[in-house]
Here is the input.
Amino acid sequence: MKRQLAFFLLALSAVPGSLTAVESTRWTTDAANQWYAKEPWLVGSNYVPAYAVNELEMWQPKTFDAKEIDRELGWAEGIGMNTMRVFLHDLLWKQDSDGFKKRIDTFLGICAKHKIKPMFVLFDSVWDPNPHLGPQPKPRPGVHNSRWVQSPGADALEDASQYPRLEQYVKGVVGAFANDNRVLAWDIWNEPDNTNGSSYKDPENKVELVLKLLPEAFDWARSAHPQQPLTSGIWHEDPSKPDSLSPMAKEQLDLSDIVSFHNYDPAEKFEQEVKWLQTYGRPIVCTEYMARPRGSTFETILPVAKKFKVGAINWGFVAGKSQTYLPWDSWQHPYVNRQPAEWFHDIFHANGKPYRRAEVAFIRKETGK
Here is the structure.
């Protein structure tokens, strides 16, 4: 009888969404691939509305604009996109958990209307380490993503007494939508060991702190028994040196149900990384790519991603207050009285006009739209 029970639990553990204690562990490769086989080829963007300077302005009750989101996601549907990667924030849960859940539900309703299943990002180590609720500052003139904020901020990351609050946030958000078919996946932590160079001053032991907290965050999410996979994307590893993984990348790959990665390189290097990641035997999604001046374009990358059925989520979608159409070097040399020779990211102007009509036509062709 014990042997039969063990076999039964083992079988259930391979099925995403099974209501069993075994489910709190990482999905098996078979379970992950069974999930992926039911999904279409995933194509989408990292999405923040044109009206929002960062994820807090996107979601806070006084600035959340469902009408504008509906309008913009209509453009995404029009070019065949079926997913979006969308950042959340722990302070939004602290501010008003019930209201935040309602706005997420509203957002998911808009997404479903446009046949889009978003991937939600829970934590993020990139840019400003001092987030605050309330009105957000205006964009810095001529600077790429000048007001994006980290989650958790440095204060919470360095203060272990705030970790229970972070745990409540993860369990609360994932638990609220754990069985919601409108959600594609959960990205637990964006670029967890990004220390932001000279742009901001992060805690000196930031990587050490995040390295300890990352497995906890995965455990918190898994304890909610989501039917969706969990992931965290590697972003600076050398595919030609697979035995030289950073400690953070090793943790990310060991914890993730599906493999995700960032790559802003030309097609040859993109394909090299895909072939390396295929050795893990799990579904692969590129959660950031597309920087035109670097040779990472829709025309070069989408055919490779399609060939290997790798999900392709570019940065970003609409040129707005995030100003990510400006290049990274705008942090050192702001584009105050000039425009870049070529947009770095983004597909549409804020009025819906494509940056390049031929590019949009190519995306439609690749997605079959």
Q: What stands out?
A: The domain at 41-367 is CATH 3.20.20.80 (TIM Barrel). DSSP finds twelve helices and eight strands in the chain. The beta strands are 43-46, 83-87, 119-124, 185-190, 230-231, 259-262, 284-288, 311-315.
